[in-house]
Amino acid sequence: MMRIAAIDVGSNSIHMVVAEARPDGHYVVLDRGKEMVRLGERSLTTGRLTKPAMDRGIKTLARFKALALRHGVNRFRAVATSAVREAGNGGEFIQRIYDEVGLRVRVIPGIEEARLIYLGVAQVVDLGGPPSVILDIGGGSVEVVLIEKGRATELHSLKLGVSRMTEEFFENDPPRSREISKLEKYLRAELEPALAGAIRRKARRVVGTSGTLQTLVSMAAHRLGVHPGTQIHGLEVPAEEVSKLRRGLVRADREARLAMRGMDPKRVDLVVAGAVLTDIVLRRLEASRLQACTWALREGLLQDYIAGHTKGIEESARFGDVRRRSVVRLMRRFGSTPGHSEHVARLALRLFDQLRGRLKLRAECRGWLEAAALLHDVGHLIDHEEHHRHSYYLIVNSQLFGFRPDEIEAIGQIAMHHHRKGVPKPGEGGSTLLAPETWRQVKACAAILRLAEGLDRSHYAVVRDVKVRGKGRRVAIELQTSGPEASLEVWEAKRRTELLEKLLSAEIALRMRAPSRASRKKARKKKRGRRRPASP
Asked: H or E segment at 148?
């Protein structure tokens, strides 16, 4: 297997991600590294990298390379951004890296930086639907990407990074009101051309990458009583809360900022400029929320390299939706039986579509049910008897990109309660409590999954389709089978209807529907194909 290290030499931090590329075109992340070196310290205003900053960068890159080699990396891809490309001695630094570390680093323009950020985000965030904006705030530059129907239609890179803005506009700590006013005026003028297209297209969703934005999301979440810890990816906070946070930050000195919950101590000197810029963007776009994304340029660099060195990325082509791609990769990672899980998912969705009205299920629950059905058996990797509980643990503690944290919890709960006994109870198995309405949806989806699982008891996909008939207190579910031998499925399914009957306030009868002439002919043909040829 090819192992690759993608390295982003940024103005504030140096990032590395180590991954293993698979033959089908996707990759598995093996390790990550991140170190704030402040490479752009003073260089963004003086035009030259300082020797101490270059020395810090060299030491970090040497450490990262050693770590990558321990993982068996045989391909390195490294790029440098704003601080290096603007410095008069940037070429000297690149040569030092090659001479002292043995790494070739490519200096990329701002537009290429924005493109790679988009590629990284697109792997783990669903960018379909209404227009949205990706915002990346670095030390030397800010990238703004307009997304329409999942595609990047505008790429902008602006010299508005937090290190640059802090050095140029702030002389006091906390900054004086006139310094803040001057910065705000400058940012509005410089950002307007980059935001104009997004404003015209009413792009109200903002996805924030980079450490500055993740720190702001974490701090805003703490103000709301949420303690995300390291689970910052996918977390959303109201734009109004970011605005309130910004007002508090501009009034606080360094010591007061350090005392704020969620503050990354390494960003305490730069976070004020980042908060002011973020607030201006959210207000100008009339955005309601800010969503954090932990994938950015280095993951985009990785994806770009793999895409250019394989004949095709099979999974990305087959599963264009980031949610489904993430679920299928997790299912394969833990060795779940694809045929059985996929067939259970098909039956579950057929039941969902026909029972949705009676159970008052929201449309978004369909995706939760499908994901839970595909992943309901992953716990067999750990233990057979308690596999449903282990499935829950693996789901909520693995990365399911594209889903909100509460959605991942709901998927785990549905999968955990697919076993045939008992009524699901909130908080069972140490699980996180969900909102009452969400819990009601989870119970209904779990009831459907229980029945769908029973209808494939033999794992031979004998039950091809289901049709729900009847109203009131009597409901009949007709089973279309591929042959007459479905007694095991009917027996098991009858044992799994109790919860669904309770939620429907109805008695459920299972009826076999004779296979059609075409399906009988197909079954006979398949059976003939399995016969062994006669001996000569």
From this structure: strand 142-148
Tell me, yes or no, if the pTM score tops 0.85. Answer: no
* Encoded tokens for 426: 């909130």
Q: How far apart (Å, rounded) are the C-alpha atoms in residues 362 and 499?
A: 19
**Hey, what are 126's tokens?**
């669903």
- Per-residue pLDDT, averaged over 120-144, amounts to 94
Burial class (CB in 10 A: 0-12, 13-18, 19+), 102: exposed
Neighbours of 334 (CB within 10 A): 19
Residue whose entry in the numeric block shows the structure tokens 């070196």:
37
Altogether, the residues listed in the chain come to a count of 536
Q: What is the per-residue pLDDT across 419-435, written as a single tens digit (0 to 9) for each?
A: 756 666 766 655 667 88
The Cα–Cα gap between 380 and 230 comes to 28
Selection from 400, 426, 421, 337 nearest residue 374 by Cα = 337
Counting Cα atoms < 13 Å in the Cβ hemisphere of 54 gives: 19
Angle between the N-to-C axes of helices 436-454 and 405-416, in degrees from 0 to 180, rounded to the nearest 10:
40
- Average per-residue pLDDT for the chain: 87
What is the spatial distance between Cα 118 and Cα 295, in angstroms, rounded to a whole number?
9
Other Cβ atoms less than 10 A from the Cβ of 143: the count is 30
Residues 231 and 209: their CA atoms lie apart, in Å, by 14
Distance CA 244, CA 37 (A): 30
490, 510 Cβ separation under 8 angstroms: yes
Distances (CA, A) of 186 to 197, 324, 492: 19, 43, 69
* pLDDT tens, residue by residue, 66-76: 999 999 998 89
The closest alpha carbon to 292, from 278, 312, 276, 277, belongs to: 278
Give pLDDT tens digits for 9-62. 999 999 999 998 876 667 889 999 999 999 988 888 888 999 999 999 999 999
Radius of gyration for the alpha carbons in the chain, expressed in angstroms and rounded: 27
Give helix then strand counts, H and E, for the chain: 22, 14
